[in-house]
Amino acid sequence: MIENLYPKGTSCGAHNEADEEFSPKKPGINTTPSTFTSHFIMSKRKYFVLDTNVLLHNAESLTSFADNYVILPMTVIEELDSFKRHNDELGRNARHAIRELDQLRASGTLKDGVAMENGGILKITVERKDMPGALLDMNVPDNRILAVANSLHKEGETVIFVSKDINARLKADALGIDVMDFEKQKCNFDELYTGWRQASVPSDVVDRFHQEETLEAEGFEFHHNEFVLLQDETNPKHSGIGRATGPSSLTHLNSQYEHAWNIHSRSKEQRMALELLLDPEINLVTLIGQAGTGKTLLALAAGLECVLHRESYEKLLVSRPVIPMGKDIGYLPGTKDEKITLWMQPIFDNLNFLMRHNGRNEDEGSVQQKVNKLIRNQQVELEALTYIRGRSIPRQYVIIDEAQNLTPHEVKTIISRAGENTKMVFTGDPTQIDNPYLDSSSNGLSYTVERLKGHGIYGHVTLSKSERSPLSAIAADFL
């Protein structure tokens, strides 16, 4: 059951770390952490039957159902075996799950059930043709997994089928089985932190903000590095933008961060983004916005400014996931650098624009020569994310474009590569995901925004207005 692992449009709710592992879709199932312990004292354990895609999404899902039975049909083991040779996130999760199962096997028999440290019991069940629900086509792997869940359900056990495949959950629901989506490492995209807010205040508060260096805004509780648009209650045009340095403290934006590489902001969100991109005290920045809002261009302009003009970093490193939009064109000839050039063409387009914008009446050839010289002198490096694992990256300005196509684990892996005095910027649009196994709520970019908001060395801005062109703006708004 490995197709459509993270179907787009799947709804999700915001979870605390303690209870985000449980999100049944049927009423009457106890899910809060405070009631789980007492619930199991009074009633029998539940049987969580896991689909293959749950383990491929998060190998730690085996241990996410404390004090319950975790059931793996044999078909799941067979599908994990088919994925273990892949050199991607799915392959790594498959291998991790297989190794964990092998360690559990050492302490008992998986057929009869092996106790786990969290109080749960893990069992591997072999599907039989005489199982209840075998009227389903048992040649289909999905149906063999469902047959195990249905068999336990017919025996009177409390069964919950866990899958990230909507169709599989629909089948289970038709059989009368409780279903749930595995929602650990997910967030509510519709309520995602935007990095800024509007606040209506009396006129004298706006005046005081402009007159004083800092402002204590009583009655508010801001996230660290959150931007606040203070608006006069009687005259919205009388306003000011501040940046939170404490729960209720606001300070003015730094005039040194108003532009980068001769690029000036065209909207308040872009001005906020430049503030974060140029501030050396902010080590991690995320920018979310639809096509044309300037995420990549601003990040590259700030990176060039910090590396070449301010010399705050030794190198600008730019990368993006190697995931095509639509059907893959297949094998690409040439060296690694020649292959990367094709995937990095959007980056080259932006670099050429910035070099042309920074010069005077330069022809296309001289602009391209400047870009090539930056790469040749290793002031700018373009790298595929495939090769970033295991690296240590000190004193560099790192930009990860199209980060919405990364899993939470991949984002964690990339950020953990950061060495001393390294700044990382992740840009992307979670509404345009090309990775078939992610959606707007389960991708690594959205997850990072929700988990890191409020940290002192982190900042985020959601850009809403397209600035690329009038045509790009109406496409983003109406198509």
Key words describing this protein structure:
single chain, 479 residues, alpha/beta, Rossmann fold, 3 domains, six-stranded parallel sheet, 15 helices, globular
CATH homologous superfamily descriptor of the largest domain: P-loop containing nucleotide triphosphate hydrolases
Instruction: Write the CATH architecture name of the largest domain.
Output: 3-Layer(aba) Sandwich
Q: Which band does the percent of strand residues land in? A: 15-25%
Strand order of the largest sheet: 3-4-2-1-5-6
Classify the fold: give the CATH topology of the largest domain: Rossmann fold
Describe this structure in words.
With 479 residues, the protein is of the alpha/beta class. The protein folds into 3 domains: 148 residues, 5'-nuclease (Rossmann fold, 3-Layer(aba) Sandwich), CATH 3.40.50.1010; 62 residues; 217 residues, Rossmann fold (3-Layer(aba) Sandwich), CATH 3.40.50.300. Helices cover 34% and strands 18% of the residues. The protein contains 15 helices and 19 strands. The strands form 4 sheets. The chain has a 6-stranded mixed beta sheet. Strand 3 and strand 4 form a beta hairpin. The longest helix has 17 residues. The radius of gyration is 26 Å and the shape is globular. It starts with 32 loop residues before the first helix and ends with a helix. The N terminus is likely disordered.
